[in-house]
Write a structure and sequence with these properties.
The chain is mainly β. The protein is 7% helix and 58% strand. It has 5 helices and 33 strands. The strands form 5 sheets. The protein has a 22-stranded antiparallel beta barrel. A 5-stranded mixed beta sheet has the order 3-8-9-6-7. It has a two-stranded antiparallel sheet with strand order 1-2. The longest helix is centred in the first third of the chain and has 19 residues.
Length: 623
């Protein structure tokens, strides 16, 4: 409760600052008018949305400066991450305490789920921040539009090419032998638009595992990413979109335990993802038909010898339609067919859903939707979601918004989990367990105050459950078990975004999350208290930008051989600065972990020490 009091105290300070900053509230633009696509898969103003959505823009991504996108996402509300040794090492992102493999990651319409992984999670450690213009994070169970495995959604968009020609080159270098070179090019007109991003990253890394106390060798990482998008307007109403993404990531690590050594371990990761979509739009109707194919190949090496291989493929057909300007409401309908395969073991899932969105009031909005899924191995499932938003106009153009939502979802055991428990490496108790699907349900209610684009305050209470959560047996390593019963996550999210002056902006968020397994123990690697504080300062006609990001984590646990252990509390400060000499040339610098905090996110693995980086960016555009 001490952390919760701290969060409420922070909100009180923010409210006081808001009262002192009212002089800056005359601008008419508001975050509530921002268009969001992730909540219902069609563009909707934030004012009409009853679910909780966080947004980070290209400007904010550049202000953070981190090379890995997950290091930026971890500073958003209700997001906790854990990483076992820096860049390229296994990383989990948990939204409101749910497992990383229950978080769905989408990039330009392509699902980055990895069927070659044990639980079909997204390999976020290979996702660089270059070439990304926007991220929307939808919190809570989202089985309605997204189907299985969506305990939260991270929706990523590349930079739009629907403008005059632009290009940039970005290079930086720093400690731990780190180098990154990236280039983006794009452009377009009324008929064609395009975007291409290429980046090459390498780092020597550091000794990541505490058990490596003799050799203490560095565990490096390299990443080459190519992401391209092409859009063609066939007519005024008909459009074709093509997307392709290619990632090659090679990581060194300790812990493969070949013979008596934990050294000289490596992992190669390859992703090839493509999507084609045909879209029709008119004043009253939209129709979109798309096909995407994602292939992943992973191979682990011990002492230079192949020790493990996995090949996965995800094929997905999707139809999305909407009817607007109906009498007092809009409708969204979706149909999808997905086939996931892992080393030749495949499974099909068919989904159908319908959502009602009210449009009869300018201040009161409700949505209600239902989804039905047919899974090859686990039969039929029905998910639903309802939400509400109610707005009150206040003096001085202020708006008070009340919101609430209730949603459900499910996750079938992955083909790998089922095959492992039936295979030669499993033994009792896991070999005796017939895995069943997980069921999730969550509700939230919150209040938000907005004053122009200068003040935004939000408080949300959430409560969500997962029935029969699947986990790997860390006590006996027998295979995959289920927590028979309910695993819970409930708490409070508090957010403040304040323009304190024309040159100074404060952003902060606090999350209190009380988690519990059916046996009464805290769920592992889920901090009870998370806080992020950011200050952005601009000067010299916006040529100089200085940013500070302070991250606090409290009261997290892990486990060793099934026994709980406490993780140390920690505080990390990152600082970034940039200066634009001309419209075409700028330099920037970044200092990560400025206080050189010594901490663990996973027991037995070091986190990065203090490190400094310096870079420059060249921009070209056609006026």
């Amino acid at each position: 409760m001490q952390g919760l009091k701290l969060g409420l105290f922070t909100l009180g300070i923010a409210t006081g600052l808001f009262l002192n900053s009212a002089v800056y509230s005359q601008e008419s633009s508001s975050p509530l008018e921002e268009i969001i696509v992730t909540s219902s898969l069609i563009p909707i103003p934030m004012r009409q949305i009853g679910t909780s959505v966080s947004v980070i823009t290209e400007t904010e991504i550049n202000a953070h400066g981190n090379l890995l996108l997950v290091d930026i996402l971890r500073q958003m509300p209700a997001i906790a991450t854990s990483n076992n040794g820096g860049a390229g090492k296994a990383t989990s992102l948990r939204i409101r305490g749910e497992e990383g493999f229950r978080t769905l990651t989408i990039f330009d319409g392509m699902r980055l789920s990895d069927p070659a992984s044990t639980q079909i999670g997204s390999q976020l450690e290979h996702l660089m921040s270059d070439g990304i213009s926007r991220v929307e994070v939808l919190r809570g169970p989202q089985g309605l539009a997204y189907g299985a495995d969506a305990g939260g959604v991270v929706n990523i968009s590349s930079r739009s090419g629907e403008e005059a020609f632009f290009a940039n080159i970005d290079a930086q270098a720093g400690e731990l032998g780190t180098n990154r070179l990236g280039a983006n090019v794009g452009g377009g007109n009324d008929r064609v638009d395009y975007f291409l991003s290429v980046s090459d990253f390498e780092t020597d890394g550091y000794n990541t595992r505490q058990s490596d106390s003799v050799l203490r060798d560095d565990d490096g990482y390299t990443n080459t990413t190519i992401h391209g998008r092409l859009g063609i307007a066939l007519s005024e109403n008909l459009r074709v979109d093509l997307v392709h993404r290619q990632v090659d990531g090679d990581s060194q690590f300790d812990g493969c335990f070949s013979g008596t050594t934990v050294h000289d371990c490596a992992s190669d990761y390859e992703l090839r993802a493509s999507r084609a979509a045909l879209e029709y739009s008119s004043d009253n109707f939209t129709h979109s038909l798309s096909f995407s194919n994602t292939e992943t190949d992973r191979e682990n090496f011990a002492l230079g010898v192949s020790a493990f291989t996995a090949n996965g493929q995800l094929k997905r057909w999707e139809y999305l339609g909407s009817a607007t300007n109906l009498p007092g409401f809009d409708l969204v309908i979706g149909i999808d067919h997905e086939q996931a395969s892992n080393n030749g073991i495949s499974r099909d899932n068919d989904g159908y859903y319908l959502e009602y969105l009210s449009d009869f009031s300018n201040n009161f909005y409700i949505t209600a939707g239902i989804r039905h899924d047919d899974n090859d191995d686990f039969g039929s499932n029905t998910s639903h979601r309802v939400s509400m938003a109610y707005l009150i106009d206040l003096p001085n153009n202020g708006i008070l918004k009340f919101k609430s939502s209730l949603g459900t979802g499910f996750r079938a055991p992955s083909p790998f989990e089922v095959a492992y428990n039936a295979g030669p490496f499993a033994f009792p108790p896991a070999a005796l367990v017939a895995l069943t699907q997980e069921q999730s349900e969550g509700y939230e209610f919150g209040v938000e105050y907005v004053l122009g684009n200068r003040v935004r305050l939000e408080a949300v209470y959430f409560d969500q459950d997962v029935e029969d959560a699947i986990f790997f047996d860390l006590a006996g390593f027998s295979g995959y078990l289920q927590d028979v019963g309910t695993s819970t996550s409930k708490g409070v999210e508090i957010t403040a975004d304040l323009q304190l002056s024309d040159s100074l902006r404060l952003t902060s968020n606090y999350t209190y999350n009380d988690t519990e397994r059916p046996n009464g123990l805290q769920r592992r690697r889920r901090p009870e208290d998370l806080m992020n504080i950011g200050l952005a300062y601009t000067a010299l006609g916006d040529r100089l930008n200085i940013n500070g990001f302070y991250r606090i984590s409290r009261d997290a646990t892990d486990e060793i051989f099934g026994s709980p252990v406490d993780l140390d509390d920690f505080e990390v400060l990152d600082i970034s600065a940039s200066y634009r000499f001309t419209d075409n040339f700028s330099i920037y610098a970044r200092l990560e972990n400025a206080f050189d905090e010594d901490y663990e996110e996973i027991t037995g693995f070091y986190s990065p020490d203090r490190a400094a980086y310096l870079g420059f960016k060249l921009n070209f555009s056609a006026n």
